[in-house]
Amino acid sequence: MDSIKTVGIISKPDAPQAYTVVPELCRWLLDRNIEIRCDLETARYSDALLGIPRKQVPDGAQFIIVLGGDGTLLSAARAVEGREIPLFAVNLGGLGFLTAITVDRLYPELELALAGEHRIGVRRMIECELQRGDKTVSTYQALNDVVITKASLARMIDVEARVEKHFVCRYKSDGLILSTPTGSTAYSLSAGGPILFPSVSCFSLTPICPHTLTNRPVILPDSFTIDLHNLASDHDAMLTVDGQVGEPLQKGDHVLCRLSRFSVQLIRPPMLMFFDVLREKLKWGER
């Protein structure tokens, strides 16, 4: 515990439970002489805290406590920007595949983490480049997925997929999801994609409501580069990253996706395994 001097806290906005959890957590940390860096959302839950922009929270922190749901964790992962700072994710939200630590287990698990008695799961990310003509317009990092989807009033869109420059298919559908194993239990699962074990080195390519019913999810090695070519008219398709950031696409845009050089480190409870989470979150039958 002596090696942990500074902890960051990133919180979900407008979470009623946080008005109790945050002040108690801060007292617990300060009693152990641990400095706190928190984002502006966390500071709203306690008058004793001074918030800073979320991207500055990781500076100097040994690990970061994330209070919220999976969406808050995805935002925290972008704030870390590839730095080797573990995320300790506590579920204040709903389903929460990634935020596996419950509030009632917060302090026992935190004691283990501070003592170094924890597991760290390393989760791969996708890097995607939006190319328009001969220019790279923007670059994103995704922990869950990169999605090309139709705009709100658009009909089906056409997206052509190439893998390592080899033509795969011209999809006519509501969109296309390229998912990491971490993201396989998110949007991809809802679209009929497979559940992937987190340590498997692959992506899944899943069409959303395809016109051709034989268009099925495809599992690809994450060493491949995937080129998603938007053939829909300007602004009829959207690029979304982790369901949180993105931009409208123009006809002819290419979204080039590859394994990111960054990864995310998640602190996991020592006794909680991946299949335990699946049984709990998906309501699978007990043995």
Give a verbal description of the structure.
The protein has six helices and 16 strands. The strands form three sheets. A six-stranded antiparallel sheet has the order 6-5-16-13-8-9, with helices on one face. The protein is of the alpha+beta class and 287 residues long. The longest helix has 13 residues, at 18-30.
Give short descriptive properties of this protein.
alpha+beta; six-stranded antiparallel beta sheet; 6 helices; 38% strand; globular
Strand order of the main beta sheet, please? 6-5-16-13-8-9
Helical content (DSSP H or I, runs of 4+): 10-25%
Measured by DSSP, the beta-strand proportion falls in: 35-45%
Specify the overall morphology.
Answer: globular
Q: Structural class of the secondary elements? A: alpha+beta
Extract low-pLDDT stretches: none
Distance between the termini: 38 Å
Number of helices: 6
Mean pLDDT, to the nearest integer, reads 92
User: How would you spell out the order of helices and strands?
Assistant: EHEHEHEHEEEEEEHEEEEEEH
**Rg, nearest Å:** 20 Å
Task: Give the biggest beta sheet.
Answer: 6 strands, antiparallel
Number of strands: 16
